[in-house]
């Protein structure tokens, strides 16, 4: 399978959301919120976008137990410096670095930051002073979890929801990622079994491609996959076999 990034409808919505953020009216409203269930491609999109040369974003993946100093230290490290062990000095480091670099900050798994209100407050302190865009990426319930944090919630100027991919997206993934031709009937079956989850779509493409190569097929259809596992969906017994 080719190692390529496919611009699905969710990706296009992400890009449109950031364009809306850039053209915001209030300078302090510099936050974009990206939400969706697991497997829809949020993390892959956030990393791809942050790594684009014209973006050069500061990508941070939050985790359980994150603290205000932890996130400030990560910002400092990503901007090429050694963080101070003292939180107040680390904040100053991060502020200076962000103000100089002018690079957007992407915080993935942002729901972990909500366990301690001061984590995102530390980021807000930097964004308020620098007006650098901040992209928060989290699970589908993160919007309601953020609502009580009015100081931060009011600064969100763009909201993007990652939804199940449509057949047209699955077809694009098959065309761009598979090293064999996948017929439309198999595309539709991959879409059905994956329920539009990008992670499972890639699994289906990989299984179809491997089966085709084992049998020296340049093209693979749904009929070719009869009796083969297309997607291992452990939550629904029997769903993965054609």
Automatic annotation (TrEMBL):
Lineage, uppermost ranks: Bacteria, Pseudomonadati, Thermodesulfobacteriota, Desulfuromonadia, Geobacterales
InterPro entries tied to this protein: AAA_22 (IPR049945), ExeA_AAA_ATPase_DNA-bind (IPR052026), P-loop_NTPase (IPR027417)
ORC1/DEAH AAA+ ATPase domain ranges (all copies): 32-141
UniProt name for this protein: DNA segregation ATPase
UniProt xrefs under PANTHER family: GENERAL SECRETION PATHWAY PROTEIN A-RELATED, MU-LIKE PROPHAGE FLUMU DNA TRANSPOSITION PROTEIN B
Signal peptide: none
Pfam families per the UniProt record, alphabetical: AAA_22
Superkingdom of source: Bacteria
């Amino acid at each position: 399978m080719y190692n390529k990034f496919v611009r699905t409808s969710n990706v296009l919505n992400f890009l449109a959301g950031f364009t809306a953020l850039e053209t915001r009216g209030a300078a302090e409203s510099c936050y974009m919120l990206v939400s969706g269930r697991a497997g829809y491609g949020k993390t892959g999109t956030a990393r791809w976008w942050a790594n684009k040369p014209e973006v050069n974003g500061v990508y941070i993946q939050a985790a359980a137990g994150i603290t205000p100093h932890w996130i400030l230290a990560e910002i400092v490290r990503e901007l090429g410096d050694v963080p101070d062990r003292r939180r107040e000095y680390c904040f100053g480091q991060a502020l200076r670095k962000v103000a100089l670099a002018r690079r957007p900050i992407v915080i993935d798994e942002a729901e972990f930051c909500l366990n301690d209100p001061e984590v995102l407050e530390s980021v807000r302190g930097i964004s308020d002073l620098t007006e650098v865009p901040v992209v928060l990426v989290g699970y589908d319930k993160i919007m309601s979890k953020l609502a009580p944090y009015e100081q931060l919630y009011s600064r969100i100027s763009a909201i993007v929801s990652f939804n199940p991919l449509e057949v047209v997206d699955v077809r694009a993934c098959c065309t761009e990622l598979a090293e064999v031709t996948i017929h439309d009937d198999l595309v539709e079956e991959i879409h059905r079994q994956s329920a539009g989850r990008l992670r499972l779509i890639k699994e289906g493409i990989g299984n179809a491609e491997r089966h085709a190569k084992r049998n020296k097929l340049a093209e693979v259809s749904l009929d070719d996959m009869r009796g083969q596992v297309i997607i291992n969906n452990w939550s629904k017994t029997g769903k993965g076999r054609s």
